[in-house]
């Protein structure tokens, strides 16, 4: 059972926000963010996160060879090296904002002797299950183990990122299954497919949903049929963070699809999450609405890797600073004012 963020701290933070020497409501979303952070930390005012840690879950997807992406599957393996060298987009953002990046190869299609590597790629979900049941449970535990390790390293804010050609297709399928909506409502252009590619991608997701049938009603079976090793790991990561009482800043479609799935696995996860940015993928907005989350940024980003969440980290720190450092109105007005 997931313990919710502190209701008492939320109440006290809301009162402090209303007592600051600023016009009522002037801090907008930043004020709301500070209250959420205070509730997660159980203290008022909240501390600005100083040990922010991002886990980028990497994997290959069988659908990538079926015309759903603008790039070949080989790009996943190539990008592993780029991230490892610290030369990816998210690496640059992370250095700018003091965020630690950890690359987790859960399901890239190559030989790996690492304990966190579940399998070589995941099945093409419109034709076969992405994983076996045992692999799904293994991937969930991989994500949980990564969260525990990052928390043990002092993380006070966790971020989830993704790396893998074709990953928006299973992510869209997870959202469709979780919300009970058709493929056409959740499928977007991903890496930038043209109209024909979008039509193929939509058909693949719809076929996958029909193939999974009622199995999609169970979140573990849903991950097995429609997900992937990396997405299952990300769901386990977010769920474990919530269990441990550590706030999570979500990224784009993949992170939000995994948070939605984690909420299905164990209700209460969403209360520990904030949304870093709005993706260009329609499924992300639908899933965020279901989770009750409003994105902090809307920059048209579709890079993935956790980039949108990292870009939003300064806003979380700013929200803590405002709630903790702005004078109270009672301190600046004379007693008889």
UniProtKB/TrEMBL annotation:
<comment type="similarity">
    <text>Belongs to the CobT family.</text>
</comment>
<dbReference type="InterPro" id="IPR036087">
    <property type="entry name" value="Nict_dMeBzImd_PRibTrfase_sf"/>
</dbReference>
<dbReference type="GO" id="GO:0016757">
    <property type="term" value="F:glycosyltransferase activity"/>
</dbReference>
<protein>
    <recommendedName>
        <fullName>Nicotinate-nucleotide--dimethylbenzimidazole phosphoribosyltransferase</fullName>
        <ecNumber>2.4.2.21</ecNumber>
    </recommendedName>
</protein>
<dbReference type="InterPro" id="IPR003200">
    <property type="entry name" value="Nict_dMeBzImd_PRibTrfase"/>
</dbReference>
<comment type="pathway">
    <text>Nucleoside biosynthesis; alpha-ribazole biosynthesis; alpha-ribazole from 5,6-dimethylbenzimidazole: step 1/2.</text>
</comment>
<keyword id="KW-0808">Transferase</keyword>
<feature type="active site" description="Proton acceptor">
    <location>
        <position position="305"/>
    </location>
</feature>
<comment type="function">
    <text>Catalyzes the synthesis of alpha-ribazole-5'-phosphate from nicotinate mononucleotide (NAMN) and 5,6-dimethylbenzimidazole (DMB).</text>
</comment>
<dbReference type="Pfam" id="PF02277">
    <property type="entry name" value="DBI_PRT"/>
</dbReference>
<dbReference type="InterPro" id="IPR023195">
    <property type="entry name" value="Nict_dMeBzImd_PRibTrfase_N"/>
</dbReference>
<keyword id="KW-0328">Glycosyltransferase</keyword>
<dbReference type="InterPro" id="IPR017846">
    <property type="entry name" value="Nict_dMeBzImd_PRibTrfase_bact"/>
</dbReference>
<keyword id="KW-0169">Cobalamin biosynthesis</keyword>
């Amino acid at each position: 059972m997931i313990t919710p963020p502190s209701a008492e701290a939320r109440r006290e933070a809301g009162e402090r926000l209303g007592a600051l020497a600023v016009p009522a409501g002037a801090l907008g979303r930043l004020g709301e963010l500070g209250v959420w952070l205070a509730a997660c930390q159980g203290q008022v005012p909240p501390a600005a996160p100083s040990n922010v840690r991002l886990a980028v879950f990497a994997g290959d997807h069988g659908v990538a060879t079926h015309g759903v992406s603008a790039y070949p599957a080989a790009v996943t393996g190539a990008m592993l090296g780029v991230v490892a060298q610290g030369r990816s987009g998210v690496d640059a953002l992370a250095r700018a904002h003091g965020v630690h990046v950890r690359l987790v190869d859960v399901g890239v299609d190559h030989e790996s002797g690492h304990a966190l590597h579940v399998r070589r790629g995941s099945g093409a979900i419109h034709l076969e299950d992405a994983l076996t049941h045992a692999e799904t449970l293994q991937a969930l535990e991989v994500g949980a183990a990564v969260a525990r390790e990052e928390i043990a390293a002092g993380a006070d804010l966790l971020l989830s990122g993704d790396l893998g050609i074709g990953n928006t297709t299973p992510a869209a399928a997870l959202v469709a299954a979780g919300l009970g909506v058709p493929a056409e409502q959740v499928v977007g252009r991903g890496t930038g497919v043209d109209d024909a590619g979008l039509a193929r991608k939509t058909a693949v997701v719809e076929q996958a949903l029909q193939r999974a049938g009622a199995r999609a009603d169970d979140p573990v079976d849903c991950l097995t049929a429609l997900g992937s090793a990396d997405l299952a790991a990300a769901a386990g990561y977010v769920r474990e963070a919530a269990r441990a009482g550590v706030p999570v800043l979500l990224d784009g479609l993949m992170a939000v699809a995994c948070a939605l799935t984690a909420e299905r696995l164990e209700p209460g996860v969403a209360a520990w999450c904030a949304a870093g940015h709005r993706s260009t993928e329609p499924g992300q907005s639908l899933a965020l609405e279901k989770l009750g989350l409003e994105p902090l940024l809307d920059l048209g980003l579709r890079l993935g890797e956790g980039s949108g969440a990292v870009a939003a980290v300064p806003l979380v720190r700013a929200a803590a600073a405002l709630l903790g450092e702005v004078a109270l109105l009672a301190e600046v007005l004379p007693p008889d004012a």
